[in-house]
Amino acid sequence: MERRIKILGTGKYLPKRQVTAAELDSRLGLPAGWVEKKSGVSTRHYVTNETASQMGAIAAKRALETAGLSMHDIDCLVCASGTAQQEIPCTAALIQEELKLTRSGIPCFDINSTCLSFVTALDVISCSMALGIYERVLIVSTEIASVGLNWQQKESSVLFGDGAAAVVISRTTGTETSRILGSSMRTFSEGAHYSEIRGGGTMLHPSQYAKGREADFAFDMDGRKIFRLTSQKITDFVDRLLSSVSLKKDELKAVIPHQASGMAMRIIASKLSFSETQMVNILANHGNVIAASIPMALHEAIQQKRIARGDRLLMLGTSAGLSLGGIILEY
To answer: Do 142 and 81 form a contact (C-beta atoms < 8 A)?
Structure first.
C-alpha cells in the first residue's frame, strides 16, 4: 500500500569510546588482522557510562534540528530497538524523560523485531499516519550490544557496536512526491533459534543467571545457518517486493541494508546483483548496531549527498526470527 510519508530529518549518536579491530585481536588472543578480516569492521563504538535512552535522546535532538522542528511538534515517539534499557517501562518513555518532556503527554511505545525494528516501525507507523492518526512521528533506534556479547563466540562478538539513530517522518503535503511505495516482511521460524538470547524473560528469569545459566543471558548466534537460510530466501523476497511496486533493480538509487557483517553485505550485493554505487555500506567504522544500522546508514547517505529528493531507495534487512524485511520509498 502506497503511503504519502516524508523523511524530514535524521540524526545519530556514537559513543566516544572507539574499539579497534587490533584491540580485539589482542583481547581475544587472535593473530593480527583476524578480527577485521572476519567481521569487515575496523572500528566500532562501545558505551562507557551512556544509557540507551541518553543516546536515543541525543540522536532525536539532532534529527529534530535537521528537520527544523522541536519536540513539541511531534505527536508520537517510537523506540525501534532490538535491545531494551530495562524490562519496564518501554525505552521510548525513558527517551521522553531524557528529553525533559515528562508532562507532555506525547504517546511513547516500543517496537521490537530485533535488527528489523526500524524498518518494522516505519512500516507500521506510516500506516497509522496514512489513516490520519499521527502527523509527525519520531522513530529512535538506540542499541547497546556490547554488554550482552558472548566473547567465547569470537566470530559473532567482534561484529557489534553501540549507538543510536533517529528519523523524523511526517505526512507528505502538496505536490511533493515523497512516499512509501511498498513494503514486505516475511518470517521463517525454522531459524528462530539461530540467533537468540534465551535468558531474561519469563522462560529463564534473571534469578537463574548465577545458577550455571550465564551463557543463556548472552547473545548466541549460528552465523552459518543464518547465512544459509537467508541466501535461500532473499532473492525471491526482493524480487517479489520490487514486482509489487513495478520497479527494476537499476531504478533504485540506493540500497540501504542492515549492516550485519562483511559477509552478509557481500551476499546481498552478489546474490541480488546490486552495484557497489547502489550499496550504502558503513560497516567498517560502525559495526553491526542492530536496529540502528539501517537508520544510521540512511543518515550517512543523506549527509554524504548520495541521495536526493525524488530518489528511490530500498531499505533491506534480516533479523532474528528469522525474518526478512524491506521498504521501498521515494525520498
So the answer is: yes
Structural domain including 202 reads 179-330
pLDDT at 283: 97
Residue 275 φ/ψ, nearest 5 degrees = -80, 160
pLDDT number for residue 227: 86
**In contact, 166 and 62? CB cutoff 8 Å:** yes
- Do 184 and 221 have their domain in common? yes
Tell whether 111 and 64 lie within a shared domain. Answer: yes
**In the prediction, which pLDDT does 208 show?**
87
Q: Mark 68-92 as b/e (b = at least 16 C-beta within 10 Å).
A: ebebeebbbbbbbbbbbbeeeebbb
Omega of the bond prior to 241 within 30 degrees of 0, cis? no
Each residue's pLDDT tens digit, 152-171:
999 999 999 999 999 999 99
Residue 315's φ and ψ, nearest 5 degrees, are -100, 125
Residue 290 CA to residue 274 CA, distance in Å, equals 22
324 with 260: CB under 8 angstroms? Answer: no
Give the list of residues 6+ apart from residue 277 with CB closer than 8 angstroms, or none. Answer: none
Q: What is the pLDDT of residues 207-227, one digit of tens each?
A: 888 888 888 998 888 888 998
Question: 252, 268 in Cβ contact below 8 A?
Answer: no
Count up the domains in the chain and report the number. 2
pLDDT of residue 106: 97
Nearest residue to 48 via CA among 14, 82, 88, 91: 14
Query: What is the average per-residue pLDDT within 35-56?
Result: 97
